[in-house]
Specification:
The chain has 2 helices and 13 strands, in the order ααβββββββββββββ. Helices cover 2% and strands 56% of the residues. It is globular, with a radius of gyration of 20 Å. The protein has an 11-stranded antiparallel beta barrel with strand order 1-3-4-6-7-8-9-10-11-12-13. A hairpin with a 5-residue loop joins β6 and β7. It has one domain: Porin.
Length: 325
């Protein structure tokens, strides 16, 4: 069996578009995550790891570009809306704890903490001009995600397949208010309030001793409605490649596609939700010892199409550390 980790342990942090929630979570106010799958299966050997693993990641996503359809627009062009979105700055800390039960089964718990700063201007109905501003700034727990993975490794160790299933839980708040007592719209809240089904498939193939390819697909579907709000279904697709320059240094790149359908319910904004995004995500990894890896990624949208008018990011950054015990 090929021991790919011995060939280049620094590539354990192969950049993975988050199979379960991969690029940007677009909404009218720009509630966003830049989540990456950084466990051993997506990023290292494809061989099972028995025992505990930890991934700690910090991500920065600033959504300050107004978009209508697939075109960037100026705030001055908006005349028929109640508010003009100015920015949503997201600084998130995402912790994923995993446990390998045996060579086929593993469990993972993903815990996001959200720091969000949002600003928009209210528009006067008669003049069509901005009047007062509203803002929200908070740090809260987001929606946690619990998943199980069933993995099969080929006899020569070069090919691995996996099925993933689980739930995204309504642990994030849905009633955050600002200093004036105004409740943030549902798409801006740290949680959706719903329980979501998460399903995915993944495949990985080692190419020689220093390269690997992966492909992933996932779907996230809300199972219920909470206080007249139901987030739209998400479809995530990705393909990635990694290369080891040395035993400790590696490069990674992925092409990521995500489609999110419109939100529904009386508290939703279906005309201002839903999007399709194609992104390029290059990154670098640096092995530390035999069981840890530092990583850094830049995510660049190549194509963005939104329903209505929405805030979108120009780029996103992620840095983190993954370790096995």
């Amino acid at each position: 069996m090929l021991n790919y980790s011995r060939a280049h342990p620094g590539v354990r942090a192969l950049l993975g578009l988050a199979l379960l929630c991969p690029t940007f979570a677009h909404a009218s106010c720009g509630s966003a995550f830049c989540t990456l799958m950084t466990d051993r299966y997506a990023q290292g050997t494809g061989e099972p790891h028995l025992g505990w693993s930890l991934d700690l990641r910090m991500e920065s996503v600033t959504q300050d570009r107004l978009r209508s359809g697939s075109s960037t627009i100026n705030a001055a062009d908006i005349t028929d809306e109640e508010a003009i979105e100015r920015h949503t700055r997201n600084l998130n800390v995402v912790t994923t704890v995993g446990y390998g039960l045996d060579e086929h089964w593993s469990l993972a718990l993903r815990v996001p903490v959200v720091h969000r700063d949002h600003l928009h201007d209210l528009i006067d109905a008669e003049s069509g001009l901005p009047t007062t501003s509203e803002s929200w700034r908070f740090t809260r727990l987001g929606d946690m995600q619990a998943t199980a993975r069933r993995q099969v490794l080929s006899d020569d160790g070069r090919m691995a397949y996996a099925l993933i299933g689980g739930l995204q839980l309504p642990t994030g708040a849905i009633d955050v208010r600002n200093a004036d007592g105004s409740r943030a719209e549902r798409a801006l809240q740290p949680g959706s309030g719903t329980t979501d089904l998460v399903l995915g498939v993944a495949a990985r193939r080692a190419v020689g001793l220093v390269d690997a390819l992966i492909a992933q697909a996932g779907i996230t579907q809300a199972l219920n409605e909470r206080e007249d709000f139901k987030p739209g279904r998400r479809l995530d697709l990705s393909a990635g490649w990694s290369h080891a320059f040395s035993q400790g240094l590696g490069s990674v790149v992925q092409l990521n596609f995500r489609h999110k359908e419109r939100d529904s319910g009386l508290e939703s904004e279906p005309d201002l939700s839903g999007s399709s995004t194609l992104s390029l995500s290059p990154g670098l990894t640096l092995g530390i010892g035999h069981a840890s890896t530092l990583y850094a990624y830049l995510q660049l949208p190549l194509y963005q199409h939104v329903n209505g008018i929405q805030l979108v990011p120009q780029y996103a950054l992620a840095i983190g550390l993954t370790s096995e015990f």
